[in-house]
From TrEMBL:
<dbReference type="InterPro" id="IPR000531">
    <property type="entry name" value="Beta-barrel_TonB"/>
</dbReference>
<dbReference type="GO" id="GO:0038023">
    <property type="term" value="F:signaling receptor activity"/>
</dbReference>
<dbReference type="GO" id="GO:0015344">
    <property type="term" value="F:siderophore uptake transmembrane transporter activity"/>
</dbReference>
<keyword id="KW-0406">Ion transport</keyword>
<keyword id="KW-0675">Receptor</keyword>
<dbReference type="InterPro" id="IPR011662">
    <property type="entry name" value="Secretin/TonB_short_N"/>
</dbReference>
<dbReference type="InterPro" id="IPR036942">
    <property type="entry name" value="Beta-barrel_TonB_sf"/>
</dbReference>
<dbReference type="Pfam" id="PF07660">
    <property type="entry name" value="STN"/>
</dbReference>
<keyword id="KW-0408">Iron</keyword>
<feature type="domain" description="Secretin/TonB short N-terminal">
    <location>
        <begin position="47"/>
        <end position="97"/>
    </location>
</feature>
<feature type="short sequence motif" description="TonB C-terminal box">
    <location>
        <begin position="787"/>
        <end position="804"/>
    </location>
</feature>
<comment type="similarity">
    <text>Belongs to the TonB-dependent receptor family.</text>
</comment>
<dbReference type="InterPro" id="IPR012910">
    <property type="entry name" value="Plug_dom"/>
</dbReference>
<dbReference type="InterPro" id="IPR037066">
    <property type="entry name" value="Plug_dom_sf"/>
</dbReference>
<keyword id="KW-0732">Signal</keyword>
<dbReference type="Pfam" id="PF07715">
    <property type="entry name" value="Plug"/>
</dbReference>
<dbReference type="Pfam" id="PF00593">
    <property type="entry name" value="TonB_dep_Rec_b-barrel"/>
</dbReference>
Length: 804
């Protein structure tokens, strides 16, 4: 990292006298005439703001408060006015744009930009979430203008909470819960009670609007500028996700260089002995700062959340972008290598067991000797061009290579006392992915009705390879116990390279129109996406216990089908700060390839590719912006098919899972310096048409009846620069299986932290300390039907960042 830092320092032209990035400062500006509000901003920040009195006459500024950068506060004050600004250092000049003012009057916050390459939506009061985010083909929208449940987390929240991966971020919403714990083979979660899986080689998380281009597990926050969460099916917005999740979708917006130079080094520690070093550098250059470079490099290693384990990571990300008058372009290069030793693993139950044993310590790994290595390389690019002031086109594409190599445990499930047997296997995968989208957006009027008409297309292609080696003959499985695990026996003698196991092509075409009526007080969104699924499966190398490689390369299944997913969304604003909304949307999911039963025996249709299936969502809600606090409430229902085994041992989609829920959320700033993020989720889950009807009416496994979040972040008044924060994450009891025979008790987890901002030798420094799972709570997580994993125990994290 040292040599790399020196090289980048030279490349970026770093000098000791370089200006630091804007610091976050406490802003408190009440609603008042815009001119007066701008004067207040000049008093509270270093900005020198120049404007003509007639330019701001007649405009009223909304209240702005919280920990914000000066420029973010300025953006909030100018939002919706049509007034432009140009910045040179701390000097800011305001100007009027007739075209921008006309479009702002006609369409409000509905803009041509897709939100990926243009300016990000400003932070809301408190700075933890943004006022809007990208919605794929629907463009960048303010949360008050979209007929869906969304939340957009800022990079400030990620770093203040010392989030390590994506999973640490999205659990801030009570409708999202992790089903695996840190240090495992992957990080999976559920949204609205439906799984979002990482299924090796396939990721249902998009980056800059494209699926399949980031590692399917343990995605580090160091590449993230925003984390955008959409609750409910997102097929219309970005096309079908690779794994076809229906509960919601997550999009990552990568980092870009700001106008102010950035040079930041962060050193971190995580118990027991995991160390991290990160370098973050950004520069803009050229006329009007049109070109930008942003580099992030990180190295991590050492024992962390599993005993005698090692969680290592090397990551490099480079973002390049250009911002012209009509052209916007970006490119990202991301390389990530993970090596985990003594991986936190999942475990099943032995046949006939109806009680889970008490959960063990959070640092116990059930299978000492496991190892996982993962390597991912990604390149992606996006281009946007304004053909006219009201017509914009875009094209984006990316390519990723992924490789996983695993020492993978097997054996029998545990009994009620935690006893089981363990053996050792190899399970390796490779994948190559190409992902792209293109579209065009036009703004126009038909009489008094405004339109945002969009046409789009997406293309996703992936080939995945698999190889599997069984435990060797002559080396028996070892007896073990979850409280005192025995080391894994020797691995198989034969290990072969992965060969093609599946090919997937997802192609879609979409059209949407957002109509605005009555000066944008009514917004109606109509749209549909036609999706084509083309999937082939092949036999892959399987090494038996004698070391014999089975036949591979034969096609075992194939499916091609098309379907249309419609969307209708409505927003009504009876007053300016209140949005009533409703939507109906359908999601489309790719059918799975039927594998083996849990006991290793085949189904009657093993190797077949199941047909795609649809899910349906109905939702209605209300959003209220109180100035510095936004509250939301939503009622929703999602129904989707799920696979069951019939009397002929055929595995197919014939059952149904219906989840109904109520969501309540609040975020913002209660008072100056006191930030809030809170919510509650209530879900009624029901199974229908199950195998033989034996579980009809039961709750689906892993779906809590209720979940609650409460987070507070407080700038203390007695020590300048000292802030304290805490989170309570409550999850009610849930069932371990669809038979509802085994129940997991509810859990309440507390996370606390503190940070201190100061200046040392003229450099801005931030010290942070965090404790996750403060009470060292032991509990089980339901990783999948009939599998569980122990949650990580109390974890200490320390870090120090310096801007130079």
């Amino acid at each position: 990292m040292t040599a790399l830092a020196l090289a980048l320092t030279a490349a970026f032209g770093v000098a000791p006298t370089a200006r630091a990035q804007d610091n976050t400062v406490s802003i408190s500006i009440a609603a008042q005439p815009l001119g007066d509000a701008l004067l207040k901003l000049g008093e509270q920040t270093p900005l020198q703001i120049f404007f003509a009195p007639d330019l701001v006459a007649g405009h009223t500024a909304r209240p702005v408060s919280g920990a914000l950068t000066p420029e973010a506060a300025l953006q909030q004050l100018l939002q919706g006015t049509g007034i432009q600004y140009a910045r040179n250092g701390n000097n800011v000049t305001l100007s009027s744009s007739a075209q921008a003012a006309a479009e702002a009057t006609r369409l409000g916050t509905v803009t041509v930009s897709g939100g990926i390459l243009g300016d990000l939506s400003p932070a809301y009061a408190g700075g933890q979430v943004a006022t809007g985010g990208s919605m794929g083909i629907l463009g960048a929208e303010n949360v008050m203008d979209t007929p869906f449940s969304t939340v957009n987390y800022t990079s400030d929240l990620l770093f203040e909470q010392q989030a390590r991966t994506l999973a640490d971020v999205i659990v801030n919403d009570p409708s999202v819960r992790s089903t695996t714990s840190t240090g495992g083979f992957g990080e999976d979660f559920v949204i609205r009670g439906f799984p979002v899986s990482s299924n090796y080689g396939l990721s249902d998380v998009s980056v800059n609007g494209l699926y399949g281009l980031v590692a399917p597990s343990r995605l580090p926050v160091q590449i993230m500028e925003r984390v955008e969460l959409l609750k409910g099916p997102g097929t219309l917005m970005r096309g079908m996700s690779p794994n076809g999740n229906v509960g919601g979708s997550v999009n990552i917006v990568t980092k870009r260089a700001d106008d102010e130079p950035l040079n930041r080094v962060t050193l971190g520690y995580m118990s027991e002995a995991n160390l991290t070093a990160q370098l973050d550098m950004g520069r803009r250059f050229g006329e009007d700062n049109a070109w930008g470079l942003r580099f992030n490099g990180m190295k991590r290693g050492g024992e962390a959340t599993t005993k005698d384990g090692d969680q290592g990571l090397e990551m490099m990300a480079l973002g390049v972008d250009y911002r012209g008058d009509r052209v916007r372009w970006s490119m990202d290069l991301i390389h990530q290598e993970d090596v985990l030793k003594n991986v936190r693993s999942q475990i099943g139950l032995a046949a006939g067991v109806v009680d889970l044993p008490s959960p063990p310590d959070g640092d116990i790994n059930f299978y000492p000797g496991t190892r996982l290595s993962q390597r991912d390389s990604t390149i992606m690019s996006r281009l946007e061009y304004d053909f006219t002031d009201s017509v914009t086109g875009h094209i984006g594409m990316g390519y990723r290579e992924g490789k996983n190599r695993q020492l993978f445990p097997g054996g029998t499930g545990m009994d009620a006392q935690g006893n089981f047997t363990a053996n050792n296997r190899f399970y390796d995968t490779d994948s190559e992915t190409f992902s792209g989208d293109a579209g065009i957006v036009a703004l126009f009027d038909t009489g008094a009705i405004g339109h945002r008409l969009a046409l789009g297309a997406t293309y996703f292609a992936q080939e995945q390879g698999i190889s599997y080696s069984n435990a060797p003959a002559g080396i028996p499985a070892v007896p073990s116990n979850i409280y005192d695990p025995a080391p894994l026996p020797s691995a198989p003698f034969v290990r072969v390279d992965p060969e093609r196991a599946s090919k997937t092509h997802l192609i879609s075409f979409a059209i949407t129109d957002t109509l605005s009526f009555a000066q944008d007080s009514v917004l109606l969104t109509l749209g549909a996406r036609r999706q084509t699924v083309d999937t082939d499966s092949y036999s892959y190398p399987m090494v038996d216990a004698a070391g014999v490689v089975g036949a591979y390369g034969n096609k075992t299944g194939s499916y091609r089908a098309s379907a249309i997913s419609p969307v209708v969304g409505l927003v009504i604003k009876p007053v300016e700060n209140v949005s009533l909304y409703a939507n109906y949307t359908e999601g489309l999911s790719k059918g799975m390839t039927v594998g083996l039963q849990r006991n290793g025996n085949p189904y009657a249709n093993t190797g077949a590719v199941l047909k795609p299936y649809k899910s349906k969502q109905y939702e209605a809600g209300i959003k209220v912006d109180w100035g510095t606090i936004t509250t939301t409430a939503a009622l929703w229902q999602i129904e989707r098919p799920f696979a069951v085994v019939d009397a002929s041992n055929v595995y197919d989609y014939s059952g149904k899972q219906r989840n109904r829920g109520l969501e309540l959320n609040a975020y913002g700033e209660i008072q100056r310096g006191l930030r809030l993020m809170a919510g509650a989720s209530f879900i009624d889950s029901k199974l229908r048409n199950t195998q033989g009807g034996t579980t009809d009416g039961n709750r689906s496994y892993g779906v809590p009846a209720s979940a609650y979040n409460l987070g507070l972040d407080w700038d203390t008044p007695w020590v300048n620069g000292l802030s304290l924060d805490g989170r309570m994450i409550r999850t009610s009891s849930m069932y371990f299986d669809n038979a509802n025979q085994i129940s997991l008790p509810g859990t309440t987890i507390f996370n606390v932290g503190a940070r201190y901002r100061t200046e040392i030798a003229g450099k801005d420094v931030v010290f942070r300390a965090t404790i996750d799972n403060l009470t060292d709570k032991r509990y089980w997580l339901v990783a999948s039907n009939a599998y569980a994993t122990n949650a990580a125990g109390r974890t200490f994290m320390l870090s120090a960042s310096v801007d130079f």
